[in-house]
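The aim of this short unit is practical: by the end, you should be able to scan a pair of folded records and say something sensible about each. We start with the first protein, listed as its amino acid sequence and then its structure tokens.
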Amino acid sequence: MIPQEKLVRILLIDDSPDDIFLTIEAFKRGTKIKQFHIVEDGMEAIYFLRKQGKYRDVPRPDLILLDLNLPKKNGKEVLYEIKKDTSLKNIPVIILSTSTDWEDIVSTYELNANCYISKPSDFEMFIKVTQSIENFWFSTVSLPIN
């Protein structure tokens, strides 16, 4: 569990400005203090996580929200890179995608995603989803916090 006053660092990997805005707005309604870092393509996500180039001073995220449909390197490729890297593999990765395709769901679990959530199209439902993420990942489970 994360103490109430602990800053939770979330890396949001998504290329849709609308989805980025909705995700941040929905999470603002929660109780934990959150800091979002946003990257909009798969290559930038890997650079961020490995602290390469302009990302050398970024903090390690406590949680990753990963979309599947990304430019340069898709979400499955990013997930594979994260989970094969011994220094990154223990960061929980939540797939947050518009895809409801069974193959996407199965393949991301095979790549060791921590969970798969289909993005709701309704904002009120999106708020409920983010609240459930916050309740479970930040209040119920014990995370390997830095």
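Turning to the second protein, read its sequence before its tokens, just as you did above.
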Amino acid sequence: MLIAQEKKKNNIAEYVLYMWQIEDLIRANNFDLDSIQRNIINGFQETREMKEEIRAWYAGLIQMMRKEGIMQDGHLAFVNDVVEQLNKLHEKLKENPEEQKYREVYGWAKPNIEIFRNKITNTGANDIEVCFNALYGLLLLRLKKETVTEETTSAMTTFSNLLALLASKYKAAVN
């Protein structure tokens, strides 16, 4: 909860990836709030009151995930909404002739986006979804301590650069 609030305020792209990770943590704990308490919440160096707030936050996420039917996979609607907002901003920026830097960074990422789009099952995913899916996949590979090729690392850097610039533009637009 605390980390999510901070990321949402400061870097919306990191927030999306963090929330995807939280969804997976909830699934890994079988939607069991007591398991989440033992495995996650108790590890925080916070007051008892703050831990209760964090527990309530997880309970709310569990309830939403059940209600939205994303027990096995998928993402919370409010997180998908953020991704959609980012994609709308992305579309505006790449069409704006005054956004030369953004268009340049997107140009570096675009071939990698197309390559990755052809590797995923959701071929209708927009550019921003593809970048998020790729970076989240990289995170999972690193957590499993699997080898990542130099080519993949290079492609992921273009996605990171694009999302970082987009997150910066988003923050400027909402402030």
